[in-house]
Amino acid sequence: MMELYQKTCMECSQLITNNYSTSFSMGIRAFDKKFRAPIYAVYGFVRFADEIVDTFHNHDKATLLHDFWQETYRAIDSGISLNPVLQAFQEVVNEYQIERELIDAFMRSMEMDLHHQAYEDSLYKEYIYGSAEVVGLMCLRVFCEGDQEKYETLKAPARSLGSAFQKINFLRDMKSDFDERGRVYFPGVDYRSFTAEDKARIEQDIKADFDHAYTGIVRLPKGARFGVYLAYVYYTKLFAKIRRTTAKKVTSERIRVNDGRKILLLFSSALRNSLNLL
Q1: Of 203, 215, 224, 240, which residue is most buried, by most CB within 10 angstroms?
Q2: 131/112 Cα distance (integer angstroms)
């Protein structure tokens, strides 16, 4: 019956991923089957932590986050949890030896959202690392399957990919982050007077992240490469759309890639992968 419990908990994380992110769900389905459940488990964990700080407005978020953090380590240490998200996550942490430093960095970034509405340069870099780059490193631990040498060579590009994704999310969600939470993540940027120069500077930074990230994507293990590339392609298309959009429009609406376009990206990416053109 333990196998049934573990299977059920993993399926809960898959459900969370499918409900919250069509783009990441599409990417995960492109992974080799052995990688899918572990990555669903990582996403389920980070998604629920993020929900605490972004959604539960009528509750004591600080206490909820602290309790979730403590419960995470109790689950990892004991190898069991009655919270299905933490049960799935602890299995992955223990099997793939995901460092606690990565988990702590992620949780600290969630904690930062409870106390900061503007991020100057040092806080911005710390937040990007904790909220996005370490998630990429957790996934890389899974993809490398214990190969420490491969992990070390791919760490920097994996961080760059997470950084690019997060910065694009910040641009895409500028309006909701400011209107609903009063947050502006980009250092030195005034939401009320977001200029074309501000936008161009941020875009140049994202482009550098993407260029570096691609050098790692092409060296990923075969079973992970296509899924990560697919997420990369989706985000580069979203980035291209944002670049064509005025600064004023970025602060007034959420930019997105429609589902039909996502399907076309899936097929074109699959063709490139099949022809070994990555």
Answers
A1: 224
A2: 10
Pairwise CA distance, residues 256 & 24, whole Å: 14
- Domain 2-274 coded CATH 1.10.600.10: yes
Radius of gyration for the chain, computed over Cα atoms and rounded to the nearest angstrom: 18
Q: In 3D, which of 22, 20, 46 has the Cα closest to residue 234? A: 22
Listed by start position, the domains of the chain span 2-274
**DSSP of 166-186, one letter per residue?**
HHHHHHHTHHHHHHHH--B-S
* 244 burial type by CB count under 10 A (0-12 exposed, 13-18 middle, 19+ buried): exposed
What are the tens digits of pLDDT across the range 60-105?
Answer: 999 999 999 999 999 999 999 999 999 999 999 999 999 999 999 9
Q: Is the pLDDT at 36 greater than 70, yes or no? A: yes
DSSP characters for the chain?
-HHHHHHHHHHHHHHHHHHH-HHHHHHHHTS-HHHHHHHHHHHHHHHHHHHHHHT-TTS-HHHHHHHHHHHHHHHHHHT--SSHHHHHHHHHHHHHT--HHHHHHHHHHHHHHHH-SB--HHHHHHHHIIIIIHHHHHHHHHHHTT-HHHHHHHHHHHHHHHHHHHHHHHHHTHHHHHHHH--B-STT--GGG--HHHHHHHHHHHHHHHHHHHHHHTTS-HHHHHHHHHHHHHHHHHHHHHHTS-HHHHTTS-----HHHHHHHHHHHHHHHHTT--
Query: Do 89 and 75 meet the contact criterion of CB atoms below 8 Å apart?
Result: yes
Does the pTM exceed 0.70?
Answer: yes
